[in-house]
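Pipeline run #58 for the internal structure catalog. This entry was flagged by the ingest filter as a single-chain record with no existing model, so it goes straight to prediction. Upstream metadata was stripped on purpose; only the residue string is passed forward. Reviewer on rotation: M.T. Logging verbosity set to normal.
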Amino acid sequence: MVLFGVLMLCIGFSTLRSYEGNPLNFFSLGGFAIVVGIWSANDTLILQVFTQRPEIVRFASYICLIFISYFPISFLASATNYRNPVMLSILFGLNASDFVITITLSILGIKDVRDMLLFSHFNVAVAMFMAIYLMVRASKKRTVNAEFLHKVIVGMSFTGVGVTWDMIRYRLFPNSHLASSFFTRIGVFVFIVIMGIHLMRERTKLAVEQGRTELMKKLAYTDSLTELGNRAAFHEKEDEIRRTRTDCVVVQLDINFLKKVNDVYGHAEGDRHIINAAHIIRDSFSDIGISFRTGGDEFIVITHKNNISSVEKAISKMDKYILEYNKNENPPIPLQIAYGYACCEMQTDMLEEAEKLADQRMYIKKKEMKAT
């Protein structure tokens, strides 16, 4: 059971990092499994064999029993969307008071830890009533689906019956072998397994849905031919720049003679021309900005900061890649990419003005390239 609890905690930390589901559910269930495992291990004598310190093992098991009631209520409160912290605060206060009183009286030699179990049993009884309240509330307010509530009721019923029976046996036969946690272990094990399987299924379902959502978003913002950001992604980037008022450089780019490639050699060759141009633009500017395909032969790069020298270095790199491509691939019409760029300081400039200026400079460059 301790190993199962550790597994739940690991899944909880994974959930915390990936934001897939509520990690508190896994933490509460994992903590419950661990404290129950340590507490019930006292009956099996396993820990005594390994530690050779039975008094420490018994003391640890009693401490676990003191706080054992908090974790299932924490789990139920989270799982049933109970937002009021008063209930958990009361239960934690009872557990903490039990702990302080037990430790104090034990250290002073007034009472043995075993003699103080009545307080722990009282806290367990309080937790049972809280669990019933949470399940009834969830059923009335429909804060969880019926299938999950049914599983909770089944698991808590097994746990409640087991705990109640063991508490009765302990009161009737405190020094007998009948005063064990056997039925509690069975009930808790059933509850934890049912809830653990449910949580893992829900997490898997949520991960699949999140992956589908991310895929749909990627498809919505990605140009299918070049895998660069599309016009929608570019407009989102524009909104981000306006919102954060980030300085940048806008680079407008256009493929020369694409219409001639399509008319003479077909659209398949034209697509190959576009794809290779896109890859060259992406690789040239990847260190300083993000590349977008905004039209058939039109591309835009938005740099991360206002730095002309880095843009000019990227353009030199692009010209080098184009020469290598034309030499190695020998396309029927050599690849040419015209460009123009303009700075945008958001404190004084308008992004639209920078885009228009970059576009004008790009067309000037296009005319120069075609004239040579």
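catalog note: The chain has two domains: 2-219, 231-371.
catalog note: Residues 15-21 have pLDDT under 50 and may be disordered.
status: ready for reviewer M.T.
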